[in-house]
Amino acid sequence: MGLSVAGSVVAICLCFGVTYGSEVARYDNYRVYEVIPTSSSQLKLLNDLKQSSDSLIFLESGTNVGTKFNIVVAPHKLADFTEALHNEGIHARLLETNMQKSIDEEKQRMVSKRARGAFDFNNYYELEDIHAWLDKLANQYDQVELLEGGHSYENRSIKGVKVSYKSGNPGVFIEGGIHAREWISPATVAYILNELLTSTDPKVRNIAENYDWYMFPSVNPDGYVYTHKKDRLWRKTRTPYSGGCFGADPNRNWDFHWAEQGTSSRCQSETYGGPYAFSEVETKTLSEFVASLKGKIQAYISFHSYSQLLLFPYGHTHEHTPNHNDLDEIAKATVTSLAKRYGTKYNYGNIYDAIYPASGASVDWAYGTLDVKIAYTYELRPGSGSWNGFVLPPKQIVPTGEETLDSLVTLLEESQKRGYYENCKDC
Known about the structure:
Blueprint: H1 5-16, E1 31-35, H2 40-52, E2 56-60, E3 69-73, H3 78-87, E4 92-96, H4 99-115, H5 127-140, E5 144-151, E6 157-163, E7 171-176, H6 184-198, H7 202-210, E8 212-216, H8 221-229, E9 240-241, E10 245-246, H9 281-292, E11 297-307, E12 309-312, H10 324-342, E13 347-350, H11 351-354, H12 362-370, E14 374-383, H13 397-417
């Protein structure tokens, strides 16, 4: 196929996995290609490359013939990559000649913003800034209680807050940043949290004061710090494994149909599910915290990026959940609401069919293990037409937050209409 497994193992040490010393991963002259397979053999080649080559980063992965792959290619693997595609008759469209350019521009904006010392929603922030802001909210508002949902391999806190205006409310658990490079996720969680405390909009006040909110902007803190300090495109945790390999995909590591679909057994892979379910201390400790809330939370919402999708269980099978029709109808109303403000179009559906098979995800675990029947994953802006979705310009943080909050109001209204919060015995 032109790209050997042996060659790719070396590549991760030299290029993508800058895991030793003080060097920072750079993507100078890394090209980004759009590839659309037109046959099953072409699709198989791309999936094989995704599983076997660590010299390629798949920013977006198609699921079927005719769907799009966006792939970052290291300069030293360009010849092998293009030869492999040529041999299979695959056309690749060049989208970007220098991936590092977007990353440098993003970093410059962050440095400038931090120098001014403000925490707002016009830029992205490092973990310590987010945690300091949560501390400030807890001191400022009686309704805010600091929480620790667990800890990381490098002993960072999975810090969050509970927002509660009165007792007896049904609970909503909000999870952000499980994939480290998806910076719009923690930013959106922070934006929604701020609005729950400060908005004067009657619909926002209604959900703010009639639900208890358990909100965690960054549940993969080691990975998030690593994206700021070392490698902007890092996805996983930072647990060290044998062979100089680091991290597992924390959204393939939950103990619900673990490792059955859409996950890799290779540690070098970005979708490595770990050696066993809950092998990552982040998922283990967070799951224990969430389990302690059983009966108190009636909705579990996870924020990811990118592709503009609203997804619900299951990811491990094409079989539908018992309340599939409700979840589908709620999702339809939710994405319709989201589109009203800026015209942002989302697709929706169960994970397996709407995006790709993926087992061991947090939302599936909450649904299948804790019986939280309102369980959704947002894949935030941008849409699938963008190649640099993980480096979303910060000017899109507020619009993303606004339309997502609009949709969250509808999601809760529609699920309430269907009686999902009536039997809140332990609230």
